[in-house]
Design a protein that fits this description.
The structure holds two protein chains of two kinds. Helices cover 72% and strands 4% of the residues of chain A. By secondary structure, chain A is mainly alpha-helical. Chain B has 19 helices and 20 strands. In chain B, the strands form three sheets. A nine-stranded mixed β-sheet of chain B has the order 5-4-6-7-3-8-9-10-11, with helices on both faces. In chain B, strands 14-13-15-16-12-17-18-19-20 form a nine-stranded mixed β-sheet, with helices on both faces. In chain B, strands 1-2 form a two-stranded antiparallel ribbon. Classes of the chains: A mainly alpha, B alpha/beta. At the A-B interface, helix 3 and helix 5 of A face helix 8 of B.
Chain lengths: 154, 483
């Protein structure tokens, strides 16, 4: 019998699987990295006021560190007080396989949601999931790209 | 408590601590272990950590300025919970930040700690001692910031953490650490009933209901053992399954006495056998257990605090009882605890465990008065007698508790309170009659049982005790003189 903690991770992994299947079709590797950066920015912003940037930074630092062991390119992701920066990763994205990037992104988001869920007793998880579901669709992604080019904050 | 979000628990590996925590330590909690030097904080932490350490659940031990790691390891290795392999395979890591902290302050110490978290990825973290940070912080503000940062790291890594320190409760109130920890467990030692004893108390533990009393503990080669009979021995449903439960009342197999006891003693009952010295209490209880094993196939444990194993065996042998055979068959056990070695709380648990292990249906405590001899307050004596009676009740056994009362008094118990928790009382006496002394037995009380009242002669026959129930007594009592 699996523990509630394992079950919670499985729940988020299942959710992220479905979410990626829906949202990454047709995206290039670079766009997939964009998607990860955008998603993390939205989650960060949603959780920031409640949990503080120091907490988010520590959690994200752990998530990136753990997943870098399986996906070494994640070490190019920078975690700072203001959020997560994926610019370095974007630059090298064309050299990466899309499947690997999707796999890494799934694991990063799954672990982030699981840890935030664990440390808060799932209190803000529903909000984060709601934000996540609103972030991405192909349409919004093109909107995101436009916004990025214009240099506006998300 | 709302159980919508179940907080995971971790087993402590410390005898009875999980019971006091109502199911183990809340996972990811940060707990202060406070108390003076030598109280047992480090041993408790090491035991918890080694119990939980594995390659998938790594432990980071942070040594500050309390003692050098080499010394910690040397003493930890004396305990059976210590496993050097867990250090070799990285399940347990030690890091000493003492020197860095002393010369460079708290900030570099925090950076080193953070990098150790990244390196080890621990599930459990112990900081020994955390109080050193308060001593070295240049200001209250610096201490607060440092503590906050550490707690954030612990939280982000989902660590279950133990912060050790020579804190008193008063000191904790003014220390920033108290506002960020989930639990406070205090350890100390003090003189109790004439002995120096260690005590543990859970002051606070978020995420779980918990026992709030102070409980004695000992440090043994296995580590810490907490004795908390008040919390672990409770009246409730029988421990035996219905299949194992013996139906019908308990007959003693002692000629004459079973006639007096009517239909017999109810299972789960405790019977006090009171009398002055030399009235036959030990013999009566030993025979009740021996005949129980031999005639009725009921297992028994005899806990003795005065008569050694050998002396009891010799007594039985002289009466022609094959006590050795019953012990060999696994039907009986004699547990001898010398009077000076009695530790009431510990021995209550030992008894409970022995009875459960053997599935004993008859239990003798010889004697209750010696077992409780250190109790100076009758309220404690009553409480302990009640716990013993609870063991008997919960194991569906029958308990015989011998009790010394001063010669020539009308007392029916030593402390004057034991009888209130017993289901039955058998009084033994010995009166001078001419040049002889005659023994008598009286069933003074036996709950839910119609028994014969009054005093009855009791003699020691060739094969054991014989009680005059009026039925064929003369025929049965072809006895040798009572010595």
């Amino acid at each position: 019998m699996s523990s509630p903690l394992v079950e919670r991770r499985e729940y988020y992994a299942g959710y992220m699987d479905a979410w990626f299947n829906k949202n990454v079709e047709g995206l290039s590797t670079e766009e997939t990295v964009n998607l990860l950066g955008q998603t993390l920015a939205v989650l960060w912003e949603s959780a920031r006021k409640t949990l503080s940037e120091v907490t988010l930074m520590a959690v994200m630092d752990r998530v990136i560190l753990i997943n870098s062991e399986s996906f070494s390119f994640l070490s190019l992701v920078k975690v700072e007080l203001g959020g997560v920066r994926v610019k370095e990763l974007e630059r090298t994205a064309s050299l990466l396989r899309k499947n690997a990037v999707v796999g890494a992104a799934k694991d990063v988001l799954t672990d982030f949601l699981t840890i935030i869920g664990n440390i808060t007793g799932e209190v803000i998880s529903r909000t984060l999931i709601t934000k996540l579901s609103r972030v991405i669709s192909k349409d919004s992604l093109s909107g995101f790209k436009k916004t990025r080019k214009e240099g506006k904050a998300i | 408590m709302n159980t919508a979000y179940a907080i995971g628990r971790i087993e402590t590996g410390v005898r009875n601590l999980d019971a006091l925590l109502h199911g183990g330590l809340p996972k990811d909690s940060v707990t202060v272990f406070g108390g003076p030097p030598g109280a047992g904080k480090t041993v408790l932490t090491q035991q918890l950590c080694f119990h939980n350490a594995s390659p998938k659940s790594r432990v980071l031990f942070v040594q500050t300025l309390s003692e050098p790691t080499a010394k910690t390891l040397k003493y930890a290795a004396q305990f059976s919970f210590f496993d050097a392999k867990k250090i070799e395979d990285g399940s347990v890591s030690f890091v000493d930040i003492g020197v860095l902290m002393r010369y460079k302050g708290l900030e570099p110490a925090f950076s080193l700690l953070a990098s150790e978290f990244r390196r080890v990825k621990p599930a459990l973290v112990a900081i020994d001692s955390f109080k050193v940070f308060s001593d070295l912080a240049r200001s209250q503000e610096e201490l607060r910031k440092f503590t906050y940062n550490i707690v954030i790291q612990l939280m982000a890594w989902e660590c279950t953490a133990f912060l050790l320190g020579e804190f008193s409760l008063q000191e904790l109130e003014s220390n920033p650490v108290s506002s960020v920890v989930d639990g406070i467990i205090m350890l100390h030692s003090q003189e109790f009933l004439g002995e120096q004893q260690r005590f543990i108390q859970i002051i606070k533990m978020r995420g779980t209901d918990h026992d709030r009393d102070r409980h004695p503990f000992a440090i043994r080669d296995k580590g810490i053992e907490i004795y908390a009979p008040k919390a672990t021995i409770r009246r409730g449903p029988d421990l035996r399954s219905k299949k194992e439960e013996r139906s019908g009342r308990c007959k003693l197999g002692i000629p004459g006495l079973d006639d007096i006891l009517g239909e017999g003693i109810s299972r789960g009952s405790s019977v006090l056998i009171s009398g002055a010295s030399g009235t036959g209490k030990t013999l009566l209880s030993l025979e009740a257990l021996y005949q129980g094993a031999k005639i009725f196939g009921e297992k028994g444990v005899f806990f003795s605090f005065e008569e050694t194993n050998e002396r009891l065996r010799t007594t039985a042998h002289d009466l022609g009882w094959d006590l050795e055979g019953e012990i060999r068959r696994g039907m009986m056990e004699i547990v001898f605890i010398p009077q000076p070695d009695i530790l009431v709380e510990r021995d209550l648990l030992r008894m409970h465990e022995s009875i459960k292990r053997l599935k004993a249906e008859r239990i003798a405590i010889d004697s209750l008065s010696v077992f409780l001899h250190k109790m100076t307050v009758s309220q404690f004596a009553r409480e302990k007698a009640f716990q013993l009676a609870t063991i008997v009740q919960s194991t569906h056994a029958v308990g015989f508790f011998t009790n010394d009362i001063p010669y020539g008094t009308h007392q029916i118990s030593r402390f004057g309170v034991e009888e209130t928790v017993m289901d039955g009382i058998i009084l033994l006496s010995a009166n001078e009659e001419g040049l002889n002394r005659q023994r008598y037995l009286e069933v003074y009380k036996l709950r839910n049982t119609s028994h014969i009242l009054g005093r009855h002669k009791m003699i020691l026959g060739n094969r054991g005790l014989i009680v005059d129930s009026g039925e064929n007594f003369k025929k049965k009592s072809k006895f040798k003189k009572v010595s």
